[in-house]
Amino acid sequence: MNLAKGHSIRFFVAAIMLASTSFVTADSLTVVSWGGSYAKACVEGYHKPFTEATGIEIKLDDYNGGLAQVRAQVEAGNVHWDVVDVELADGVRGCNEGLFEPFDPATLPLGADGTDATEDYFPGMITECGANQLFYSTIYAYNSDHIEGQKPTSIEDFFDLERFPGRRGMRRSPVVNLEFALMGDGVAVEDVYDVLNTDAGIQRAFRKLDSIKDDIVWWEAGAQPPQMLADGEVAMSTAYNGRIFNAQVVEQQPLVIVWDGQVLDTGYLAIVSGTKNLDAARQFVTFASRPASMAAVTRHISYGPTRLSAQPLVSTHLASGVDMQPHMPSNPTNMARALPNDWAWWSDNRDEMNVRFASWLAR
Fold first, then answer.
1. Where would a tag sit more exposed on the chain, N or C end, judged by fewer CB atoms within 10 A?
2. Measured between alpha carbons, how far is 75 from 91 in angstroms, rounded to an integer?
3. Does 59 share its domain with 74?
4. Claim to verify: residue 357 and residue 217 sit in the same structural domain
5. What pLDDT is recorded for position 25?
């Protein structure tokens, strides 16, 4: 492949930068992620290759999201996490609070085709404290062995206890649940956040959740919904699409994803302010941001790359040979009624929604 002169120069500069950062003194980094099949996919996709390339060991911890633990470490001046895999709204808010290190887009590696990184990401994917890694979505799923006759096909069906009786699994958080509730109550996808911008709209969402509240089983970790569905503990459950894919393909569970009303989301690797391993952490984030690293993750779980040049690199599931393209949340077939998560709305309103959600749970 013949590259333009400018691209050749950038490749040379990138090589010099990589060489200059390969002598960091850190022996290990503590990286915090979401556990389960997603964390395993990241380990195989870029943790192990990073260690092989640099000699820096990755120590992996799990968490269930939020900023409380990061905030406590930074405020106490006792930072023992180096890099945290954050939801976009939390990442932006944490960045504004000074919990995460500022990010220089110039450190991002070039695209697989030599394109400048700032042109290689989907719009809005590069933020002040990080560049988003992967698209994932919250969907709902059911076990086809446990629902006889007509099957659910829409977000409205999730809230229809008369036609589809049984318990419902939902994450113990207002995030996505409010959006699902409004779409389940007939609000058009494009109007969801306009409605949520009104107190009447928020009350409407909670009223819809009220209609199934007595039948909800709450989950907190992403590994729980597939197990709840497999065990028949719930008839349907919201879940992360990649966790359901893993149950379908790897564990051969008869689970079915309903893509209608999926909430499409993304997140990035944030470097915790005050880490003693700043140079190594930056090197790790740069390595993970390569198109090849993103595509390597898709060989283990159905979360799509946020870089344009990584899209053609998505191939098959390594363990089963299944074509991964149809399982990506960003696949056009799955996007017919998808709702992109409005991270700015959640960054501005999450505290209030957490309080209202906690109050609603306690009633």
1. N
2. 17
3. yes
4. yes
5. 57
CA distances from 132 to 86, 101, 129, 135 (A): 9, 15, 10, 8
Q: Tokens representing 261?
A: 């009303």
Identify whether residues 20 and 157 lie together within a single domain.
no
Q: Answer yes or no: do 169 and 115 share one domain.
A: no
Give the pair of three-digit tokens for residue 246. Answer: 């893993």
d(CA 22, CA 45): 20
- Please answer whether residues 299 and 223 qualify as being in contact, where contact means their C-beta atoms are separated by less than 8 angstroms: no
Do 58 and 92 lie in one domain? The reply is yes
DSSP three-state, residue 79: coil
Tokens of 240: 């992360």
Segment 192-227, tens digit of pLDDT: 999 999 999 999 999 999 999 999 999 999 999 999
Contact 59, 28 (CB under 8 A): yes
CATH number (domain holding residue 71)? 3.40.190.10
114-146: string of b/e by CB count within 10 Å (b at 16+)? bbebeebbbeebbbebbbbbbbbbbbbbbbeeb
Q: What's the domain range around 90?
A: 5-135+266-325
Alpha-carbon distance of 274 to 100, in angstroms, equals 8
pTM value? 0.81
Whether residue 95 is found in the same domain as residue 24:
yes
